[in-house]
Amino acid sequence: MVQNSPVIRKISKSVTKRVLSELKKKLKKDEAGYDTFWEQFGKVLKEGLYEDYEYRDKIAEITRAFSLKHQKLISLDTYLDEMADKQDKFYYLTADTLKQASSSPHLEGFKSKGIDVLLMTDPIDAFWMSQMGTFNDKSFVSISRDKYDLSELSGGQTEDHTQDADSNVISELIKDCLGDLVEDVKPTSSLVESPVRLIAGEGGLDFNLERIMKAQNPEFEGSKKILEVNCNHELIKRMLDLSSDMQKAVSRVMFEQARILDGEMPSDPQQFPKDLIFISSGL
User: What domains are defined for the chain?
Assistant: First the structure.
């Protein structure tokens, strides 16, 4: 076939290199103009990050991503240059919309330390970042799926009560209240304002990636999540003083709230409003 001809392959490589080179020049000379181009054709280029091993690094050099810190599109090189002291990873969050990503509790620990997070809203983002793995020897880390530790990074400090006896008691209490709704309940220092958040279970996917998989295969079933608890939150501190029924209602509402903030519907639409009414009448 013609496309398998050595001559055609050589021409194809030459054209690809030339196009990538010209796009890189455009980015350096006219960032605003390049961003207009990226809004139109960025999704196509990102397919190359996922599929084209040969030119993946070159495409990454001209890739744009929305920065939490700058509130605009930036390059991966810019993110790399502005990494915090001791930071050795690209942190990112995938979501259906920029609005959803920006209000996510997953960002709280990063905001408190002044660490930037790339907010990704194209379905292919989760795939190319996982496929590519690293850029300039720095790995990509999903803040809703992968494990990470912010304790040694620069910036504001948050109290770490994850090993306190009371924190473990509260976590076990909430786990008992939720039962099979979650894989586990753990205290965390990654939250500041929110009482809880849901992260992917061991070897599992986050909600955003599960929605993409379900769109491709309606029979796909998501996995249970881990509920992380902010033991510095006033509501969490009150849990031990509540009645058993109130503890269960509050635990369920916090779980459903975390689902909603991650773009999901309540797991039990009938029980959710009942719990809200019960809490409002009893707290």
Answer: 14-48 (no CATH), 65-157 (3.40.50.11260), 165-277 (1.20.120.790)
